[in-house]
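Late entry, evening session. Most of the bench is empty. Finally got around to the prediction I had been postponing all week. Sequence below, unchanged from the version circulated by S.P.
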Amino acid sequence: MEVGLVLSGGGARGFAHIGVLRALAERKIEPVAIAGCSMGGIIGALAANGLTAEEIHRRFKEMNWKKIFDWAKMGSLVGGRGIGSVLAENLPRTFAELKIPLRVTAVDVQEGRVITLWEGDLVPALRATSAIPGIFSPVELNGRMLVDGGLLDNVPVGEIRSMTHAPIVAVDVTVPPDRKLVFHDTRPVWKRLNAPFREGRRPLMIELLTKAYDIPVAALTEIRIAALRPEILIRPKLGPGMNVESFKRMDEAVEKGYQEAISVLDLYSPRGS
């Protein structure tokens, strides 16, 4: 069975896409076009390059994450050249060299609108689609200053509709908007300052800024999905505790993506049918 595949953004939550890819392969469901955003764009590019779910999983596990971080610029914490070099080691230079057509979304931060990237150099486009504002530097591409497409189109079902007439499988790992914040931190001051992230609890200022991003993204995603109606929608049960930076929980995210995909696919095509 041929499908159009949509993979959403969600940072480390996006590792669930790998499990979904494994489930699709087991059911002999073949993506003939892929649209993605942020981490979904990156994993979508690896899949479009012909890598299996197992190969993608292994490459992420073998990745030297320290290579991703470089000097910040343009109002960010991380520059972006590091992630570009890591991607270049695993992908061809251009979109045209991919085995499956791919489109990714980014946002023109100057004009405030969605930009679709689908031709020319691949790695700069993937850097752009995953350039979370304030975390990764914006990417200057084709005269535009681009940031993460998740701001306006985190689950680009509209893009895939223009690429294929096949049924659409959309995978949404958007951060849930109802994640509860801790407003009264009882830890000693020295502990909060010494290791604010070690216990999985961000500083409250970061939590508030992050949630101010998560709430409108989730709301806009619901509107788009309701309007565009993918034939199959998979939302892995990752829970609110899995954050965009939970990279050490990769295997857990992969497994939850796989289990939810199997559960949803069974509704459409039960095993043995």
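Two things to note before I forget:
The longest strand covers residues 30-37.
The chain has a mean pLDDT of 88.
Will write this up properly tomorrow.
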